[in-house]
Amino acid sequence: MILKVLLGIIAIQHFGFLILEMFLWQKPLGRKVFSMTAGQAQATAVLAGNQGLYNGFLSAGLIWAAIYPHWQVGLQLAIFFLSCVFVAGIYGAYSVSRRIIFVQAMPALIALIWCFLL
Q: What is the pLDDT of residue 1?
């Protein structure tokens, strides 16, 4: 049950990233969250939309893992999608901002550790 809660939290988080990156990127909230000027947001909007779509896929995969009827398969799905989130978080921390390690990579790592404790 704890794993399902962790998966749900991380899935909601990545769905939020989808909303920010696909729909709010050029809006005041999106610019504030990502510390961008209107010009920067406009110049990168297509890239952000693509990134948001990938975050949506991660969110969908985490939800799939949480609701899969056979727990062994759900666990394997969880390990795969959490690993993807973790790697994306590490790369984001390296290439964009160190705070991504805390926002994205650490929650995924905690959930991954929980997977291996089951």
A: 87
> What average pLDDT does range 61-73 have in this prediction?
95
Model's pTM, two decimal places?
0.89
Q: For the chain, what is the HEC assignment?
A: CHHHHHHHHHHHHHHHHHHHHHCCCCCHHHHHHCCCCHHHHHHHHHHHHHHHHHHHHHHHHHHHHHHCCCHHHHHHHHHHHHHHHHHHHHHHHHHCCCCHHHHHHHHHHHHHHHHHHC
Report, in angstroms and rounded to the nearest whole number, the Rg of the chain calculated over CA atoms. Answer: 15
Amino acid at 116: F
